[in-house]
Amino acid sequence: MTAHPGALPASLSARTRAVLVAHDVSKEYPGAGRVVDGVSLQVFAGELLAIVGPSGSGKSTLLHCLSGLERPTSGSVQIGGTRLEELGRSALARLRRERVGFVFQSYNLISSLTAWDNVALPARLARRRVRDEDVDRALAHVGLSSRARARPAALSGGQQQRVAVARALAVDRDLVFADEPTGALDSAAGAQVLSLLRSAAGANRAVVMVTHDLQAAATADRVLVLRDGAIHRELLAPTPTAVLQAVTAGGGGR
Ligand SMILES: Nc1ncnc2c1ncn2[C@@H]1O[C@H](COP(=O)(O)OP(=O)(O)OP(=O)(O)O)[C@@H](O)[C@H]1O
Ligand SMILES: [Mg+2]
Predict the structure, then answer these.
(1) Is there a domain that residue 147 lies in?
(2) Averages of pLDDT over each 10 residues, the chain, 254 residues
(3) 211 in contact with ligand 1, CB cutoff 6 A
(4) Which residue among 18, 48, 107, 148 sits deepest, i.e. has the most Cβ atoms within 10 Å of its Cβ?
């Protein structure tokens, strides 16, 4: 099943609001050309949206543009009604700190801080009161209570990835972006992280997840297939077979 990107998934209520609206977003890099090419999409409160596509198709770059980590070359991104392109550097950083959680493909943990302090850091930077029990709970949810005092260098790749997930979910956010959040995990830990992301996509929140795992993508409310920086297909109520077909199907268009 395909539809126009931004159509409301049947699983969501008609009253659901868009927390993110992107219009005709492109990103060019010197030497690499246009790696994101005219992407328009909406992300709705309460949904888990998966983005899949071949390596190099622009998934991480798109996530960085949607979350305000990078400025698109052209196009517009609104988060909660605020147009990111109208914000100066510090206002954009503030909006990111206060409203957006991000799980990086490369984890981006601070090596000098313990797992516990890494999880507490975004709230501290946003000058929010961070309760010890929120940090403890976030670490417990990813199964890492016993490693709370370890620094990243003493953690396995999968453990570092789980700290990065705990960090993004420890405080309430309108929007959580997760770039390959299960890439370093075995199937049990991966399933645990997926279920955390699913429950994070609660009432007023939305989760946008890039994944190469088509089974994981099929647990989302909606899947966007990216190819050469553009949305190639959109699947509502995806199944693993439908995602596989959409990823492997040739030809352009939706
Ligand atoms: N800072 C940059 N400068 C120049 N080119 C870049 C930069 N970042 C990404 N690219 C290029 O943009 C393209 C898309 O990269 P991107 O990381 O978004 O892909 P991806 O879909 O996330 O891939 P993967 O699945 O391997 O993570 C690639 O060709 C990459 O080399
Ligand atoms: Mg990537």
Answers:
(1) yes
(2) 53 71 97 96 95 96 97 97 96 92 92 96 82 94 96 95 93 91 91 91 86 94 96 94 88 48
(3) no
(4) 48
